[in-house]
From TrEMBL:
Family stated for the protein in its record: Belongs to the PrpD family.
Protein name as annotated: 2-methylcitrate dehydratase
Reactions accelerated catalytically: (2S,3S)-2-methylcitrate = 2-methyl-cis-aconitate + H2O; citrate = D-threo-isocitrate
UniProt cross-references to InterPro entries, sorted A to Z: 2-Methylcitrate_Dehydratase, MmgE/PrpD_sf, MmgE/PrpD_sf_1, MmgE/PrpD_sf_2, MmgE_PrpD, MmgE_PrpD_C, MmgE_PrpD_N
Stored PANTHER family: 2-METHYLCITRATE DEHYDRATASE, 2-METHYLCITRATE DEHYDRATASE-RELATED
GO MF term set: 2-methylcitrate dehydratase activity; aconitate hydratase activity
EC number(s) given by UniProt: 4.2.1.3, 4.2.1.79
Domain MmgE/PrpD N-terminal: 19-263
Enzyme superclass (EC): lyase
UniProt entry tagged with the keyword NADP: no
Organism: Mycolicibacterium sarraceniae
Keywords: Lyase, Tricarboxylic acid cycle
Source lineage: Bacteria, Bacillati, Actinomycetota, Actinomycetes, Mycobacteriales
UniProt GO BP: propionate metabolic process; tricarboxylic acid cycle
Amino acid sequence: MQIHDVRTRRSAEEFPRSEHLAWKIAELAADPVAVPPETEAMVINRIIDNAAVSAASVIRRPVTVAREQALAHRCARNGAKVFGVPGSVSPEWAAWANGVAVRELDFHDTFLAAEYSHPGDNIPALVAVAQHFDVRGADLIRGIATAYEVQIDLVKGICLHEHKIDHVAHLGPAVAAGLGTMLRLDPETIYNAVGQALHLTTATRQSRKGLISSWKAYAPAYAGKVAIEAVDRAMRGEGSPAPIWEGEDGVIAWLLSGPEHTYQVPLPAPGHPKRAILDSYTKEHSAEYQSQAPIDLARRLRERIGDLDQIATIVLHTSHHTHVVIGTGSNDPQKFDPDASRETLDHSVMYIFAVALQDGSWHHERSYAPERAHRPDTIDLWHKISTVEDPEWTRRYHSTDPAEKAFGARAVVTLKNGDVITDELAVADAHPLGARPFERDQYIAKFVELADGVVEDAEQKRFLATVGDLARIRPGGLDALNVLVDPRVLDKAPTIPSGIFS
C-alpha cells in the first residue's frame, strides 16, 4: 500500500492534478490489475449476502416505497432489474430500490476503522449498471473489487463522524470508481465522476441520531443513485469541482478537520491487487455491527447469570465509538424508549443486550417487534444497562493489526446480592477471527434461511447456481442475478399512497 498525505491547498498554491486524491483514486480504478481468486470468492459471498437481506426486507414499508418509485421509471433500452419483480427500469432507479432493500435491516457487511461503512452498499449500483450495459460477470467482479477498495481505504484514512458528516460521503466516490473500473473508463472521466459524487453525497449524521427514521436505509441508496448520475455526466464530458477534498473551500477545509490537518489515505500501488474486501465482515445478527459481539456475549453470559431478575446493573466497557453511537454516551433518551422506531432500537446496545440476554438469540423481526420492546421485564432490564468508554477497547477498535482489532466489550454484571460476574468478547462469532467465521456455506445458509417463505426453492437454487458462476457470465446474462419473489408475498406489502411519480 502507498500512504498518501491529503490536506487543504490554497487556490494560489501549485498543486498539480496528479496529486489530487480524486486523481489517485481514478488511476487506481483504471489500473487493469487482475482480481485475486480470494477477492473474487468474497465478491460472490457478498452478492449472496445482499440477496439474503433483501429477501428478508422485501415487503417492509421503506423498501416497498423505493420499489414503487423505481417501477415508475421503466427503461426503453435494456434497463436494470428491481429485486423481487420482473421487468426493467432505469439503472439509477434500480440501484435506488435495491440499495434500500439491502440496507433496510442493517444486516449486511461492515468495515470499521477511522470511519464506519457498509461496503456492500456499493453492489446494487454496480449490478444495476452492469445489467443495463450488458457487462460481463468478470467486469462486474472487477468493479465491485475497486468499489470496496476505495471505500475501505477512505474509511481507514478519513474520519467523518467526528465532524457529524454521514459515512455515505465515502460511498459515493467508491461507487463512481467501481463503475469506472467496470466500464473500463479512462482516468479523466473517473476523476470527474469521483469529484461530483463526493460533492453531492456529503450530508450530516442526523439520519443516525435521536429518533432514527427510514432515511438511514435510504441514504446509501441515494449515494449510489447520485454516483451513477455523476458517472453518466462525466462520460458526456462534464467536469467536477476540484480539488474536491483538498480545495480551499473543499471538503477537508470546511466539513472535516480544517486546513491545518493532514489525512493519510492508503491506496494500493499501481499493479497491486485490490484485496480490501477481505478486511470487511458480515453480520450474523440484524443489528448495528458494534452490537454483534455484545449479542454473542449476552448469549454466553445468560447461563452464567441464571435468574435475570437478580441483576442490579450491567455496565458494558467498550470503545468510544460504541459508547457514543449506540450506547449511553450518545445521550439519546430515545434509546430507552419502547415506542422508538426499529431503526432507533437497532442503535441501542442497551436494548439489544437486554433482549439477547433474555432470549438467548436474535431475530431480525421478532427481536424488534413492538410487543417485544414493551415487555415489562425487558424494560426493567434495559434500564439497568449502561456503557462506559474503556481506552483499551478504543485502542483496539483503531488498531491496524487484524489480530488485535476488536469491536467488542467487557460486561460487568452486578447482582442484587453484591456478586459480580464479568465476561468479555472481542469479536463476533461470525467475524473471520471469531468462534464461527462466515464462509461460503454460511453465506448460503443465511440466504436460504432469510429467503424461506419469500422465494420459492427452485428460484433460490437457480440464483445460487448463477452467482456461483459469476466470472463466466457473458454479456447480457447478468439479469439472472435478480431474485424473483413469490407474488403472494409481494401482495402482503403495505399499501403506499401516491406520490409525484405515477
